[in-house]
Amino acid sequence: MKNLFKAINWLNLLFNIIVAVIIGAVLDVSYGTAIAVSLFIGTVLSIAKKYDFKTTLFFAVQKEIWTDYIIQKFFKDNNIINKVYRDDEYVMAGKVVHIPQPGASPNVVKNRSSLPAVAVKRNDTDIVYVLEEFTTDPIHIPNADTVELSYNKVDSVLSEHTSALIETTTEELIFKWLSNLTAENILYTTGTAAAAALDGATGNRNSLTRSDLSKAKIKMNKGSVPRDERYCLLSEDMFNELYNSLSETQQRDFSRYVDAENGTLGKLEGFNILTRASVAAATSAGVIKPIGAATAATDCDVALFWQKNSLTAALGDVLFFEDKDSAIYYGDVYSALLRAGGRVRRADNKGVIAIIQKVA
User: Fold this and answer.
1) 299 and 177 in a common domain
2) Domain CATH code at residue 299
3) Number of domains composing the chain
4) N or C: less crowded end of the chain, CB within 10 Å?
5) Confidence band of 52 (pLDDT split at 50, 70, 90)
6) Per residue in 96-111, pLDDT tens?
7) DSSP per residue, 197-227
8) Looking at the domain assignment, is residue 250 inside a domain?
9) Left if phi > 0, otherwise alpha if psi is -120 to 50, otherwise beta: which for 230?
10) Whether the predicted pLDDT of 278 surpasses 80
11) What are the residues facing 140 on neighbouring strands?
């Protein structure tokens, strides 16, 4: 109480009282009310200045706010995740997803003559996938940084945390979608030879062309895959190959479908074209390599084609951790955890195709 009394700046309070009297006269407010409000505000501001409440009250990290921020960034700013089927509502205990698979369609008989018809039980199955856990390395923010820096370092650091978390999660989802495809769902590029673009790869690869996309389209059509909401995800290098293979008229028609808000660069052969810095790498034998695996000289770039209801993704637990005023770090420590997963939605992989560069 003694320290609190010392923290009050009496000169400032006197100034506030004078100002309150003037304001009370102008606004026709009683002097008693104006002075009481002035005393209260002056006391709070004096104490806040003494004990630096600015940092603790107004710039404290709110765990709930950052948890919501991570979730919103995961879906709102991710132009890939928003274009697949979402299994969020089927997540059990924040970790596991069950996808029911309908059994065989009923047999149809023309002009049935034999009665009674035999009842056949439909045997449904269940696909289960487990959500992976992604965590960021803890970030230490010294106490001096929260007080002395002219910008809010906490916000800056945590925004980077979120971006890194979402980037890694997205790369893992792409690997999950591609890794279980069979040979039936894999095509190879057929264009002219061009230098391998993957870092660490050598030699030439056949480039991606419009005819390659046409083959993917025909394959989906023959499989009765819905023709709406079809997408193609290309690395920047494969997109460059594809775009350069088009005539000027084709390029103009392609660009008519640009949708910057949804991340679509154009439309070709019924596929909305999306890009990212890299999609995936595969061996010359067509095996998708895990994220972070070293690139071999014979590795090839990969493009992913899908219809929205053919791929699935789910977001489970999202947690944000903080250790304020750590005695051993002399500052604050933050980290985040996110559980997410996905897979090809159908057991037969219908509606999902990979096109892999072929070694020329």
Assistant:
1) yes
2) 3.90.1690
3) 2
4) N
5) very low
6) 887 766 677 788 888 8
7) -STT--SEEEPP-HHHHHHHHHHHHHTT--S
8) yes
9) beta
10) yes
11) 333
